[in-house]
Amino acid sequence: xxxxxxxxxxxxxxxxxxxxxxxxxxxxxxxxxxxxxxxxxxxxxxxxxxxxxxxxxxxxxxxxxxxxxxxxxxxxxxxxxxxxxxxxxxxxxxxxxxxxxxxxxxxxxxxxxxxxxxxxxxxxxxxxxxxxxxxxxxxxxxxxxxxxxxxxxxxxxxxxxxxxxxxxxxxxxxxxxxxxxxxxxxxxxxxxxxxxxxxxxxxxxxxxxxxxxxxxxxxxxxxxxxxxxxxxxxxxxxxxxxxxxxxxxxxxxxxxxxxxxxxxxxxxxxxxxxxxxxxxxxxxxxxxxxxxxxxxxxxxxxxxx
Amino acid sequence: xxxxxxxxxxxxxxxxxxxxxxxxxxxxxxxxxxxxxxxxxxxxxxxxxxxxxxxxxxxxxxxxxxxxxxxxxxxxxxxxxxxxxxxxxxxxxxxxxxxxxxxxxxxxxxxxxxxxxxxxxxxxxxxxxxxxxxxxxxxxxxxxxxxxxxxxxxxxxxxxxxxxxxxxxxxxxxxxxxxxxxxxxxxxxxxxxxxxxxxxxxxxxxxxxxxxxxxxxxxxxxxxxxxxxxxxxxxxxxxxxxxxxxxxxxxxxxxxxxxxxxxxxxxxxxxxxxxxxxxxxxxxxxxxxxxxxxxxxxxxxxxxxxxxxxxxxxxxxxxxxxxxxxxxxxxxxxxxxxxxxxxxxxxxxxxxxxxxxxxxxxxxxxxxxxxxxxxxxxxxxxxxxxxxxxxxxxxxxxxxxxxxxxxxxxxxxxxxxxxxxxxxxxxxxxxxxxxxxxxxxxxxxxxxxxxxxxxxxxxxxxxxxxxxxxxxxxxxxxxxxxxxxxxxxxxxxxxxxxxxxxxxxxxxxxxxxxxxxxxxxxxxxxxxxxxxxxxxxxxxxxxxxxxxxxxxxxxxxxxxxxxxxxxxxxxxxxxxxxxx
Lengths: 305, 580
Known about the structure:
- The complex is a heterodimer of chains A (305) and B (580).
- Chain A is mainly alpha-helical.
- Chain A has helices at 2-28, 33-38, 44-54, 60-72, 86-121, 126-140, 143-157, 169-199, 202-209, 214-226, 228-252, 257-266, 270-298.
- Chain A folds into 2 domains: 2-72; 88-298, Orthogonal Bundle (MetI-like fold), CATH 1.10.3720.
- The radius of gyration of chain A is 24 Å and the shape is globular.
- The termini of chain A are close together.
């Protein structure tokens, strides 16, 4: 409990840092949000008027101070263009993103761990080489290419899944697999080397000396030990995922916060960009915390302090 | 069975018969044999020791019997391994699996790594039982508890729910034995079962193995490099060298009248307690410690406060005389290596440490650092694999800005018995003993007044160990530096040290000349340690060591508290003994 409290305090500090850096970056950005709102035909007076209204004429520290003050009260500000509360916008889209993310991680783990374990067990043989080659391809393929390829084959040609949108399980499959494919190569490689190392351990020899079946040696004795470094990786991986989600949501028309962020960046809608960044940062921080909390459940030697 | 008994003249048929066993590894140059044409038999209730140095093929033999040779490179290329009527060498894996753990079981050297860290002791024990017998979970559990009781573990029910890291090394090895013997196998293979354990724990584990063998009639194959353990345990001995058997003999005959040259050499190299006395004249100290205390804080809680201290070294005082060897002995965790670290300024200490008249601190000047050099236990880990031997030996000279580093390195190579032509080679091209010579050469590069040898010969084979010990002695005679020799091995210390201090839980319990401490041990702990050392003499079988009652003492104490300080009393001629 002490541990969780301390980690949450740390997380708040991290979020504060993230908010500051993002704010600075948006402040020095050459794009002017006011021009976007006012449109090209607006007079100088109108532009200045809007600027004053939004408080964008104030010095940096005052702008940031105001934002922080709102943030502490749970106020993420209002979108410049849509005139709605950012919290509301994100709140309505967050469930879709979380669902996609969870499905993506599941896809990634199923693909990656299976490939990694199989490669380790058939180390040095044809299957191992084929799998490692595949993992290279999945790691290097850009997501928009993978997503378009999957769309073409499974949605357009075969018609197994809808082309885009949101609603049923069928809608979820292609975007989740797209997200999962990228990370699966990483996990396959990590799982393979971790598994190979564990299979050499003395306690695996002990397990075999007891006369256990091969399946039991691998699944009960090797897997829990080999998966530990992979779990730590999932926490870090959520950050990479957030990047991928922006692309995947746009390609598949998935109504999540990635799409929201994409639109907001194009229109320099600062409050939304800030809000999405903070929510993503929160997701990464919590994901890491979760990974760290799971580790001691698998390995009793890990003590949280 | 009765027929067989008649054939063998009333004696029982052997449990295990190995005939012309050959095990080979596949290399680029074809098959290379690791074990060649090995034949032996093993009778019920008998202990057969397979002794030999590293690379002799003794462990490969045991893995071959278990069917655990690392595939696909290493495999049996000839011969039979008959367990009763079954030839294990020809058995397919699915059937071999049923024999492993049930009829032939094995315990390994490293109890710290041989149990799965993420499974409870109970889970690992019950699965061993259930892998071979169709019993219910509850029944398997009951049998597991019985097995833990049989290996004399306290609180067996609690042990079932504990994880391996919560147990000490000796306790883990007992769990391994419980696991191996739970199904009453006909053959137990014990591969260096006590090598990683402290001597007193080793004694307890060996006693236990012998008792269980008597109870169950198990035949034991004991794989070991330690001739003391052989003498203590074995009925018959096979000596192996480079994959071949060089001699097979009953244990008494092997020690009294070894036939093969190699056996004779091996036995001659074994360090023994006792032997001619060495003078230990009082000389000016090159290093002295006064009231040295080293504690490591353990932090915890919200604000990372110190919740406990590890009292690694407590009020230790001694002098290391010029040109002599001062030995620190004790079991793991007694603080002997921490003293070495403090001496080279790598551990924060209280109290006074002086070397060559100057005070040692963590920020001591470089010139003073040159006066104390170290040689470590594992020569492979102590040498950077990416540097040539010449660069490794010359490195201290370069760091201290001394000229002619390369020539000095060549000199040093010659001094430690290596050729200067080998300067451009890399550490992996040398054998373990040669690597340790390189480490010694590196330590001598700066002409130190004191060399700390921390378990420097513990990882070496006995014959190599004897050579390195001789080299150390010879270098001391020539160059006159002092050694601080740290070891858990009483026999080795007895052959090299002139003065000895025995440590227990961070404090010195007895100190004096080698003759005083080993010839006339006064403190009960010293007596217990010496008593526990296995003697390479089969006639000297001693009664089992009385087990200590109560909790295992711990060097952990809450802040502000600590162990009672022991007072050393002079029992005459500088023989200091702690008050009991």
